[in-house]
């Protein structure tokens, strides 16, 4: 996919300086919002809600996935999803500053409230590098690892952030979010390939599906917050 074509993606703003537009595009905000929604849905299953922890977990995933993981993906991918708009130094700064901020927030809650969150912090940190840098000859850069790291684990992390334990409900919910993530990544890969081939009609159809999945998931997360807040 050419750099100009990538700038025309539906989630890239049409206004502002070039690097601003690329940075917003690099974060894949609708897809990052899906992952954050999974953490929110996991949190909403807890018997009682600490709203500061909901906000903290949303920020953690926003930083670690939205910025760091996607910057790492641009560094590790042979196809350079966002071209050379950011050089390697700038991308590495995004990776480490995003992770530093995310893990600093997580460390506070791990130390004082939810020590079991550490397990998921380590696993997700591993996937940031193993998946996006295609380590181990790319054996972990698969749909299965994508589903696990950004579809299943966020639900567990959201619930554990509230309770410091796991339960049947988050396990059940994770099966649903895994299915949503699978459908999303399958459509997304087809969509990117069609855009590379400039098959506009078919790619537009898949774009609609991606919008429905991402914004639908975000809407469900928002509704879940409203329901728990009004109980």
Work out the number of β strands: 0
Biggest beta sheet summary: none
Our measurement of the CA-to-CA distance between the termini, rounded to an integer number of angstroms, reads 48 Å
The helix/strand series, from N terminus to C terminus, equals: HHHHHHHHH
Walkthrough of the structure:
With 231 residues, the protein is mainly alpha-helical. The chain has one domain (18-230). Helices cover 77% and strands 0% of the residues. It has helices at 3-7, 18-26, 29-44, 51-76, 88-112, 117-132, 143-163, 168-196, 200-230. α4 packs antiparallel against α7 and α6 runs antiparallel to α7 (143-163).
SSE order and pairing:
Layout: H1 3-7, H2 18-26, H3 29-44, H4 51-76, H5 88-112, H6 117-132, H7 143-163, H8 168-196, H9 200-230
Helix pairs in contact: 3-4, 3-7, 3-9, 4-5, 4-6, 4-7, 5-6, 6-7, 7-8, 8-9
Describe this structure in a few short sentences.
This protein has helices spanning about 5, 20-25, 30-45, 50-75, 90-110, 115-130, 145-165, 170-195, 200-230.
Labels describing this entry:
231 residues; mainly alpha; globular
């Amino acid at each position: 996919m050419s750099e100009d074509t990538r700038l025309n993606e539906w989630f890239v703003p049409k206004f502002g300086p070039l690097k601003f537009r690329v940075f917003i595009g690099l974060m894949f905000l609708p897809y990052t919002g899906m992952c954050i929604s999974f953490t929110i849905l996991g949190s909403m299953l807890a018997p009682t809600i600490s709203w500061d922890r909901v906000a903290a977990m949303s920020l953690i995933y926003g930083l670690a996935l939205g910025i760091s993981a996607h910057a790492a993906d641009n560094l590790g991918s042979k196809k350079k999803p966002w071209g050379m708009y950011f050089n390697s130094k700038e991308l590495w700064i995004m990776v480490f500053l995003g992770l530093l901020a995310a893990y600093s927030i997580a460390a506070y809650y791990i130390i004082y409230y939810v020590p079991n969150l550490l397990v998921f912090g380590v696993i997700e940190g591993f996937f940031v590098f193993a998946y996006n840098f295609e380590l181990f000859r790319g054996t972990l850069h698969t749909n299965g690892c994508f589903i696990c790291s950004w579809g299943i684990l966020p639900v567990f992390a959201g619930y554990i952030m509230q309770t410091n334990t796991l339960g049947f409900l988050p396990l059940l919910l994770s099966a649903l979010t895994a299915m949503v993530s699978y459908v999303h990544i399958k459509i997304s890969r087809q969509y990117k390939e069609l855009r590379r081939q400039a098959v506009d009609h078919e790619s537009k159809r898949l774009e609609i599906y991606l919008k429905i999945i991402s914004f639908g998931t975000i809407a469900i997360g928002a509704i879940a917050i409203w329901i728990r807040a009004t109980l």
